[in-house]
Structure formats: C-alpha cells, structure tokens
Specification:
The protein is an alpha+beta fold and 173 residues long. The chain has one domain: 3-Layer(aba) Sandwich (Aminopeptidase), CATH 3.40.630. 24% of the residues lie in helices and 31% in strands. The chain contains 4 helices and 8 strands, in the order ββααβββαβαββ. The chain has helices at residues 25-28, 49-59, 113-129, 143-151; strands at residues 10-11, 15-19, 70-78, 84-92, 97-104, 133-139, 155-160, 165-171. Strands 1-2-3-4-5-6-8-7 form an 8-stranded mixed beta sheet, with helices on one face. A hairpin with a 3-residue loop joins strand 1 and strand 2 (15-19). The radius of gyration is 15 Å and the shape is globular. The two termini are 24 Å apart.
Amino acid sequence: MLALQEDKVLTTPRLALEPLLSSHAIVLFDTLQNPDIYKYIPGQQPVSVSALHLRYKQLETRKSPTGKELWLNWAVKLKNTEQYIGTVQSTIHEDSSAYIAYVFGIDFWKQGFAIEACKQLIDFLISDYGIVKIKADVHIGNFASQSLLKNLGFIKTGENIEACDFYYERDIQ
C-alpha cells in the first residue's frame, strides 16, 4: 500500500500550490466556469459551489477508495494577488508511476502558469514519492497541452483515435 506523505504547500516564484481542500470550492468556482476550459477534458464545469465542495471533499482523503492509488491535488494561487487560478493533480500508482493533470481558468492561459505549476509538481513527485515515470493523456486537438508536455520532457508514446487522446510519458533518470 502506498504511504501518504505530509501535505505540503508547493511554491514557485509566482505561485503557491496549496493542498486542495473542500474550502477551495468557493474560491475556484468562478474561475472554472468558462465552458472553453472543458473543450478538451472530460467533464463539465461545476454546476454549483456546493457540487464542487462535495467533489473536493472526496479528494481531501488523498487516497482512492481501495487505497491502491494516492490522489494528490493542489489549488494554484497567484502569490502577488492571492487569486486562485486553477488546480494541478497527480494520481500515484504502486509501481512508482504517476499521472498528472491540470486545469486553469481561461484568463490564465498562455502566461506560463501551467508549466510553472507542473514543473513544481513533477519535482515534488520525484523528491517526495520517488516517482520514476510520469504520464499524461491529452486530447488530440489540445495543441497547447501537447506543447506544454513536450516542454516538460514528455514524449508521445501512443494514441487512441476513438477516444481522441494522445498518451505522453516522461521517464525519470
């Protein structure tokens, strides 16, 4: 069974990544309302603060119901304004691999926030959890995310045209 490490706030020069709590629902709800965010990711925008609160409450345990995966999630906040701009996530598996994902409000796209947050997340996964392989799935039309992953050292390893997904991986040396 995977051991959950102590929750940490991760920081970069511009960002604070806070372990996600149900209380983040109220500060992230408006940021996550633009339907363009969901063009390339599963799901739809949250229907209410209450629904988002319940979702985040489920994630607070940091573990899957079986305990075989760790579900680590952070709310991403701008340090200079204290504004919450999105989330980053990782699912850690028993084989020392992890999936990462990220969602940012549309007003915060193309400003380097996603790559900055993901770099910090990856560094944390390697240093604190000994992750040896990181994976991500990206919609074939999401060119910005494909570019972000390539800039983070990921390579395309496969595709599922029916699901409209490309698969990316990064081995940690």
